[in-house]
Amino acid sequence: MRLAGINIHPVKSTAIRPVEEAYVGRAGIVGDREWLVVDGSGKLVTAREVRELFTVVADTPSTGGPAGVDLLLNAPEMDPLEVAVPEREAPAVGVRFFAKSLTAQAVGEPADAWLRKALGRDDLRLMWCADPTKRPMNPAKYRPGEFAAFHDSSPVSLLTDASADQIEAWSEGEVPARRFRANLLIEGAPEAFAEDGWKEVAIGGARFRVAAPIDRCVMTTIDADTLESGKDPLRALAKHRRWDGKVWAAVHLAVAHPGEIAVGDDVIVS
Questions:
Q1: HSE-CB of 151 using CA atoms within 13 angstroms
Q2: % of the chain surpassing 70 pLDDT
Q3: Sign of the CA dihedral 10, 261, 215, 200?
Q4: Which of 26, 31, 162, 264 has the CB geometry, 3.0–4.6 Å to 192, for a possible disulfide?
Q5: Using an 8 Å Cβ cutoff, are 180 and 159 in contact?
């Protein structure tokens, strides 16, 4: 098996940024989901609520953005905006992240105003994850020393092309692998959903522990190009991959050993 794709999402729920190589740190792929958008009450805003987030293209040095620019934002009919990481001494702000309470740092009014104009809401704010080590992790799935930034659960997600192909075959119409927004896409798996049985994964200089399967949400039903939604892949998964009241596809990974990875790397599993 080999690594066929690496995907980074600098701002949570914004456009996928495919890269050829990346560094995996303790909190995941550097540059992935280190920023997020909240509403006026401090609650996380994703493409579940504001589909137009998919039209925002965010780049960092990890995704080929301009040198010296921490974050570059682009969107249709908007001028690009360069955003700097807040100063370390900037005060922490409470953020409601699904059922969790996390802390983040507010980026500032220029970025907030840009997002409000781009997305058509007047209560949006951009936040940065200053210290992922302070995020509480689920002790039932994660071990001491395993961290994540603004990822739903784990710092890294993995999907095989065999699984993606099977889900699309079950579905009506096209359901490309990118619907699942996995960080790592693996080709050459012996069968669909082989990743369910893996315990450890080695890619390039990085090592991962398989922490749990991923339960899928309504965001997988949204076409990021048209912003239209359908019933698949959730309908298909409900027929074939449903247990414990949820539907499942792909797996969460925890980082056992940081390191460099690149498209084309061999994938070794146990």
A1: 29
A2: 100
A3: negative
A4: 162
A5: yes
Q: Do the domain assignments include residue 40?
A: yes
Produce one character per residue of 199-223: b if its CB has 16 or more CB atoms within 10 Å, e if not.
eebbbbebbbbbbbbbbbeebbbbb
Cα separation, 267 vs 270, whole angstroms? 10
To the nearest 10°, report the CA torsion of 88, 53, 47, 84. 0
pLDDT, tens digit (0-9, with 9 covering 90-100), for 54-76: 999 999 999 999 999 999 999 99
Within a domain: residue 48?
yes
Q: What pLDDT score was predicted for residue 197?
A: 98
Kindly state whether residue 14 falls inside one of the protein's structural domains.
Answer: no
Boundaries of domain holding 85:
33-134
CA 9/CA 123 separation, integer angstroms = 22
Q: How many domains does the chain have?
A: 1
CA dist 37 and 230 (Å) reads: 25
Task: Report residue 251 CA to chain centroid gap.
Answer: 12
93 assigned to some structural domain:
yes
Closest CA to 30 of 136, 119, 149, 126: 149
